[in-house]
Amino acid sequence: MDTVTDLMKTAGPGRHLITTAVHPRNSEPVVAYAWFDVVGEGTDALWSGVYADAAAVTEVVALAFIIAKGSVVLGTTSPTGEETVRGWVVDGHALRPLTADQVRHAFQESPGPASDAVTYRTAFPVPASAPA
Questions:
Q1: pLDDT for 91
Q2: Residue 82 phi, psi (nearest 5)
Q3: How far apart are CA 24 and CA 86, in angstroms?
Q4: How far is CA 103 from CA 37, 48, 111, 115, 132, in A?
Q5: What's the pLDDT tens digit per position in 25-80?
Q6: pLDDT tens-digit readout, 3-39
Q7: Average pLDDT over residues 112-129
Q8: Whole-number Å distance between alpha carbons of 49 and 30
Q9: 11-14 long-range CB contacts below 8 Å, 24 or more apart?
Q10: Which pLDDT value is given to residue 59?
Q11: What is the signed CA dihedral for 79, 82, 3, 1, rounded to 10 degrees?
Q12: How many CB atoms lie within 10 A of CB 97?
């Protein structure tokens, strides 16, 4: 699926964790994640990771598009050590970028410790996921 590939290519340099979740009605959530590294920027960027994990993320995103419900979160540790989080929601059959405030709000409502070391960032548009 071009959406996940484009998201990974656009993520920028650093160590990344992409997590996707779908919450089908009357069913347990379906979640997949993949770690990947990006070295370089732009067309010269190279990424590496476990193909099977990336394929699982792609399958969950495809399911989210089918039922038009789900989310994607991208956690990044930059080469300088800065930690950031970005997020998208499935809107129809596309990923809609969330603002930094929307991502911060979503994480503050979820269980788990809050970290002052994390910067919430507005998500970037994912080219293959633009609404038709």
A1: 85
A2: -70, 135
A3: 23
A4: 22, 26, 14, 13, 24
A5: 888 889 999 999 998 887 777 888 888 898 999 999 999 988 888 999 999 999 99
A6: 887 888 788 899 999 999 998 888 888 999 999 999 8
A7: 77
A8: 21
A9: 11/36, 11/38, 11/47, 11/74, 11/76, 12/38, 12/41, 12/45, 12/76, 12/78, 13/38, 13/39, 13/40, 13/41, 13/45, 13/78, 13/79, 14/38, 14/76, 14/77, 14/78, 14/79
A10: 92
A11: 60
A12: 19
- Report the DSSP pairing between strands 118-120 and 83-91: parallel
CA distance 16 to 102: 20
Tokens for 97, please give them: 């970028």
Chain-centroid distance of CA 119 in Å reads: 15
What region does 63 belong to: left with phi over 0, alpha with psi -120 to 50, or beta?
A: alpha
123's tokens? 């998500």
Enter the tokens of residue 70.
């789900």
- CB count within 10 Å of CB 41 equals 9
DSSP state of 13: S
Chain segment 83-117, per-residue pLDDT in tens:
999 999 998 888 899 999 999 888 765 555 555 68
